[in-house]
Recover the amino acids of this structure.
């Protein structure tokens, strides 16, 4: 049963990716329980005062988009993965680094709370 717009996105992905994408969504939601689930730029987005993180399914990887500030902050931990200014590519055939994803989400939430408390 499709419950949210992100669930609908996942339901449209290849069957072999749906379980890992559902796990990724749940890890993010556990860390960001007050965030709103949206589809922005055509991909799942967690929003709380601004976009916190996005993720997507791609042919050979799962994309995770925590903004350039998070990429810079976690640069050392991200060396095993292909990154760009605001994106991380997790290889589809490998287990997702859920603990690192949790840390990044928490860091982004803290960054946003500071920004919006000023």
């Amino acid at each position: 049963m499709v419950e949210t717009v992100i669930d609908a996105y996942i339901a449209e992905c290849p069957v072999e990716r749906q379980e890992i994408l559902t796990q990724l969504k749940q890890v993010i939601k556990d860390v960001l329980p007050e965030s709103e689930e949206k589809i922005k730029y055509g991909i799942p987005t967690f929003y709380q005062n601004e976009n916190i993180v996005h993720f997507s399914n791609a042919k050979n990887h799962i994309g995770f988009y925590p903004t350039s500030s998070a990429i810079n902050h976690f640069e050392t931990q991200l060396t095993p993965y292909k990154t760009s200014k605001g994106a991380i590519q997790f290889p589809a055939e490998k287990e997702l680094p859920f603990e690192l994803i949790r840390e990044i989400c928490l860091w982004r939430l803290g960054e946003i709370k500071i920004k919006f408390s000023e």
